[in-house]
Protein: Choline/carnitine/betaine transport
Organism: Jeotgalicoccus aerolatus
Amino acid sequence: MTNDDNTTSKQSNNPDQPEKFNFRKLGPVFWISTLIIIVVSIIAMVIPARFQVASEDVYSVISQNFSWFFLLVVFGFGVFLLFLALSPYGRVKLGGDNSKPEFSFWSWIGMLFSSGLGVGLVFYGVAEPMEHYMKSPFLGGPVESAEAARIAMGYTYFHWGISQWSIFGVAGLAIGYFQFRKNRDGLVSTALEPLFGLEYSQTARKAIDILAIIATITGMSTSVGLGIMQMDGGLDIAFGIPSGPMTQIILTALMTGLFIFSTITGLKRGMKFLSSLNMILALVLTVFIMAVGPFTFIMETIIVGLGDYLTNFVGYSLRLQPYSGEAWVQDWTVFYWAWVIAWSPFIGSFVARVSRGRSIREYVMGILIVPPMLSFLWVGALGGTAIYSDLFNNTNIGEIVLNDQTQALFALFNTLPISWLTSAIAITLIFTFLVTSADSATFIVAGMSIGNTDNPPTGLKILWGLLLGLLTIALILAGGLTSLQAASLLAGLPFALILIMMIASVSKGLRREPNEAMKRRQRRRKY
């Protein structure tokens, strides 16, 4: 192992204590990444109109020319993970053969869910099915009808199911396998060593880690931007607080302040508490909606939606529209996959960090089953209730969504009892989701900056949080959703290639595992 500040994890004597923040340790990975983010933020704020036009051009070029690539690789990720889980390789642990999980199962699931796409799910849980209900995913397809509602729910399940979590799963598996089983550091560049050798180019290593940091901050800024915009819309529709850039900037500043507090308290205390709070708030809203809403309709919607999802999984996974020239798949599926890929360096590293001691089989099944099922429950309860409201009660939630997606969730609450309370809970949920996501993202990015993803310095995490807030504000001011989507596509495209190489790397590593590691564990019988 080389003694390089960006390729070596320097473990402290006490692994529970972060390293001290020392600027002299910050090498080119940190400085180049920071410079790129600051320059992009300044350009976006100084010439927002031109930046928005450029964002639209970037979005158009990538989505039109690389849609096939995104769909193919994401489908392949899911196939790869399922193969590993069902094969003898599934018995290999992310750690030593006798290692034990650091977190309980439900704490683990809560951290996965909160650090994953919690913000996006709250944003799109009502907005996506209602938009598909109003505007069909298929050319000439049904709209504002029972058949339109069924298609809308099935496609929303597809976007929030196994496919997106397989992206996280691939990144986390590669990083966790080499970090905890092979005792390497948690850097993306290190996970590629089986392909290029232990001593491959330091320049290439730094370039890969810089790309991982840029992708992480870009993907995270998309999610934070969506959450801030939704909170802004919710405060407007529920409490009459004027929406606009000033409110969004204040919300971003408040989020950053709470994130810093969470960071100072440490991963186990701050993150664990907020992750548990997220799960409780999400559960409260779901139970409330199911209690006061059309319970039977919701349950039937979930069952039918799950059946449609399983039936159409392969078709939707490989669906494009070359014959009609339509861009629906690019606007939805391709954007989602690129967004999630942009998140994957940080989610992968964080998932690896909290999954130490679990077998590959347990890891894969946990990633691919539990979070998607929680997502299905959320979409079924809230999205299903919104569709029921428009379909049978002639409300106008769909029209509101077409005009402004940020108000979708709160438009639903306005059709239910005590809307002020549910809106307040939802705003709190979005806020805490943002904090947990920012906390875990900056934890990992700080570690990538110095080559220690186990316990990076608190000061460095705070610094990256401030940079994340700066980029988020810049992208919101320079085009809002369009700029956020373009940023995800631009970051997701090159990192998809890195994920493919990570699959090849971990496959090569697993083939070298001794047979003893893959033997079925014998359970002790109690007499």
Observations:
- Confidence is low (pLDDT under 50) at residues 1-16.
- Residues 281 and 425 are 7 Å apart (CA to CA).
- The chain is about 75% helix and 0% strand.
